[in-house]
């Protein structure tokens, strides 16, 4: 079983998304997201409590697994709503 997050979580400033939900969201980061590279470039600071985060395209995530024998036999999307009412989608394959 694997899980995926909606890519919008990586495209915007997380502090604004979670701490200031009434502010207009402006694109800040490109996809695929690599927090280690962004930290090395001085664009973000990583809290060691949370660690590095990376995003991948669905092609990158699933293609290699399919080529190595993964059989995708079912698919569903779980919709979760947070306490600040932003829909967070998690896909489990």
Can you describe this structure in just a few lines?
This protein is α+β, with helices and mostly antiparallel strands. It is 28% helix and 16% strand.
Using brief descriptors, characterize the structure shown.
alpha+beta, 4 helices, single chain, 28% helix, 93 residues
Report what the structure shows.
The protein has 93 residues and is an alpha+beta fold. It has helices at 8-11, 14-19, 35-40, 58-67, and strands spanning 3-5, 76-81, 87-92. A three-stranded antiparallel beta sheet has the order 1-3-2, with no helix packed on it. A hairpin with a 5-residue loop joins strand 2 (76-81) and strand 3 (87-92). The relative contact order is 0.23. Residues 87-93 have low confidence and may be disordered.
How far the N terminus sits from the C terminus, by CA atoms, comes to 6 Å
Main sheet summary? 3 strands, antiparallel
Radius of gyration from the CA trace? 15 Å
Question: How many helices does DSSP assign?
Answer: 4
Order of helices and strands: EHHHHEE
For the biggest β-sheet, the strand order reads 1-3-2
Helix-residue proportion: 25-40%
Number of strands: 3
Fraction of residues in β-strands: 15-25%
Query: Unreliable stretches, pLDDT < 50, 5 or more residues?
Result: 87-93
Helices and strands: which structural class? alpha+beta
Shape assignment: globular
- Average per-residue pLDDT, rounded, comes to 79
